[in-house]
Specification:
Chain lengths: 444, 444
């Protein structure tokens, strides 16, 4: 039983510094809770030896040679917070082959190569934990694999990208436009200088892949995710949704039923009294449905140096407990049965559609005939006059239909002479929205 | 390494039946996730041998003799869901001495004797888990001890009693009176026939004791909890609070700072945009503040057969993993440093006060002089005329002050000739409430 735990750290950015802060600041409690006599960072891989470091990092600790960390026999556990894919993967593989336990915050890597790395960890009797890779400070992976372990999870709905949630909150509450909201997110440090992966939903998709794998014990690949970014969202769409009782969020959905699994990331309207609708600003939340437990939700900061570092160090503590128990072997016995993805025609949802329709006799009849011939009715509809007297704004929410049928409907609508343009279309989730009576709507 | 895990069950009420349902219904996944070859219930202690049981309970399994469960060498793990204190304690102690692991859902027992039973478990190298004892299906204990293990928790605010939250939701949203709300809770199965422990806050206090102990690694006793039930809450109080932007909830608060620890349960006003304010009906939630992670919240069902059983079976799975790892020993190394409770004068909060004041010249001056002489100002105030022309309704929210100072203020107010009666008083938590501009208030 090893009592003095020594850590190797790959990367010393904001999260790396947060980890060193927590390890030092909470050392007494950390030792008390794990029973270790000491927990310390032995070596840190950095890019620049000369850079000025904080008081807890001395010259002897830093190195630019990965092998100083990966081959040091005194190091029990390697924390990877360097990011990127190829180099990080190579280092983690080497550390695992050297029988070192791994804690990683690298969602890109785990979404792409998680299965492979976990197998390698198992072969080497090493732990591999990655709580920080999804929803920063929220202990959601642990809740899925342990707290709700006895249940059968059927659905997860996640707000797992802080940048887009911050922007959508500003667009909803302060009626900012897309560009203004993005600029504010950058100014506040909630968007990176290149926010493409956030705006296009790729960042959220990586996290949903990790959630779906763990929650469903299934093999889900990034390519399996249906992906639609928030680039086309407008303030008008949000406003029309609100008039119908909905809030727009960039939502990841992972769902399974007897037909298979679906994973998607797209802007989705949810009823404004749904718990996810009150997740504001840069906060994240994951709503989990289990057959037995029903509805639960886990809410907290999705990013940031200290929240992410908390998740990493909590993983470190789990590993230390395992080391101290002399049980440094995962009971990694996930269901290896084949993963079946739902067919497009089995992916069912309600949809919000916004159209500009020519204000001519028979226009409405042509429109409704498209729905009738595709066997879908709509549960809500607003028609509003527009400044141009020749056009009318039509907003509708359909009853549930399949994705293939919905695409057919959109195609048919676009071919109607009376339809000038399909302005926007969104999936609708989370049950029925109540349209407050006092709202001044031209409901048909 | 034992691969075939046999369970003894003490009690076969709604939760007990839920446990048997989940163990059977999810057996395949349970086995896959723990690596056990089988997990089954061997013996069940019941009161009545003749009672008709479900298809998963046969005659050979049930017994009325506790020793058939506690002394059976084949039983690895005992689940206690019989409730009550003395008998349950005695059985658990015997099982622990026989080196059996324990999973319990018994908050009354754990709030009173948790420390003692955990020590006995440690002596006998047995696991003792009790996730189901707090907030039913929400994996909150695990989140505190593992997910947020690396952080220093400073505050927990919990809605941990479903009965009172259901009633307060009805009183708030549908403007029901207290008695009507209680009757509905009974009709819906959310209140027991004798709801005293719920209404007086005792049930919530037990859960807060368990949360405070785990979250703060401290010894907190039930007697240490400041307790005020919801028996005196009126629909008018709720309505006046709403006018000031607050929602009333029966809230458990556990807070620690350099002055010590406080634990309380009482009806509290929180700002209506606080995440806890949108926890409706019978749902529970625990808001957790950690120094590093910041704000997190855990939301879900607080009771019910299957949610509670989910928590129990998840604990069972943790124990099985430990058994299979051959590591059946807790690394139970909580901080044993002495627990210091805050003094009354160090417990600080804002307060809501509602008064009936005689409508005479100088009344307001006498009232404000009480606050001035006690060095507290108020941040919000409404004065409204009443049907009786001689009286005015005055509602105010103070700035933060100590509990002792607040009691002095109430005492001074009650002694004023111009005050007819102090109608109600509530603690206010969770930051500033925005008073929406469009509200028609006589704000002074």
């Amino acid at each position: 039983m090893k009592n003095n735990i020594e850590i190797g750290l790959l990367g010393l950015g904001t999260v790396g510094n947060g980890i060193i802060h927590i390890l030092n600041h909470h050392k007494k409690e950390l030792i008390a809770k794990t029973g270790a006599t000491d927990v310390s960072v032995r070596k840190v891989l950095v890019r620049d030896l000369e850079k000025q470091r904080g008081e807890n990092v001395n010259k002897e600790m830093v190195t630019t040679k990965a092998e100083d960390v990966l081959d040091d026999p005194n190091i029990d556990l390697v924390i990877e917070v360097m990011g990127g894919i190829d180099e990080a993967k190579q280092y983690i593989e080497k550390a695992l082959r050297n029988k070192k336990h791994i804690v990683s915050a690298n969602k890109d890597l785990i979404a792409l190569h998680g299965d492979e790395l976990l197998s390698l960890a198992e072969e080497n009797n090493a732990e591999f934990l990655y709580e920080a890779s999804v929803a920063g400070g929220i202990p959601i992976l642990r809740s899925l694999t342990e707290g709700l372990a006895s249940d059968r999870i059927t659905k997860m709905i996640g707000i797992v990208n802080g940048t887009t949630n911050y922007m959508l909150t500003k667009m909803t509450k302060e009626e900012l436009g897309y560009d203004e909201a993005l600029q504010q997110a950058k100014d506040q440090g909630f968007a990176e200088s290149d926010p493409t992966a956030d705006l296009e939903g790729l960042d959220a998709a990586r996290k949903m892949v990790i959630l779906a794998r763990l929650g469903f014990s299934a093999s889900v690949r990034l390519d399996d995710v249906y992906l639609k970014g928030m680039n086309a969202v407008t303030a008008e769409d949000i406003d029309f949704g609100q008039q119908l009782g909905y809030t727009l969020k960039l939502i990841g959905i992972a769902h399974r039923n007897e037909e298979g699994i679906e994973v998607s990331v797209e802007p989705v309207f949810i009823p404004e009294d749904h718990p996810l609708a009150s997740v504001h600003d840069e906060y994240n939340a994951v709503y989990v449905y289990g057959e037995a437990v029903g509805e639960t939700m886990f809410y907290g900061p999705g990013a940031g140096s200290l929240p992410t570092a908390t998740a990493v160090v909590s993983d470190v503590m789990s590993v230390i407990r395992q080391i101290r128990l002399g049980a440094a072997t995962q009971v990694n016995v996930a269901d290896k049965s084949e993963t079946v993805l739902k067919k497009e025609e089995d992916i069912r949802a309600k949809y919000f559609i916004r159209l500009h329709v020519r204000d001519v006799a028979g226009a409405f009849k042509s429109l409704t005939s498209v729905f009738t011939s595709n066997k879908v009715s709509f549960e809500k509809l607003i028609q509003l006059p527009m400044e141009s007297e020749e056009l009318a704004e039509v907003v509708m929410v359909t009853h549930e239909t399949s994705r293939t049928n919905f695409e057919q409907i959109i195609n048919d609508i676009e071919n109607l002479d009376v339809v000038e343009t399909v302005k926007s279309r969104y999936r609708v989730e989370g049950g029925e929205a109540d349209v407050p009576e006092q709202r001044d709507l031209a409901l048909v």
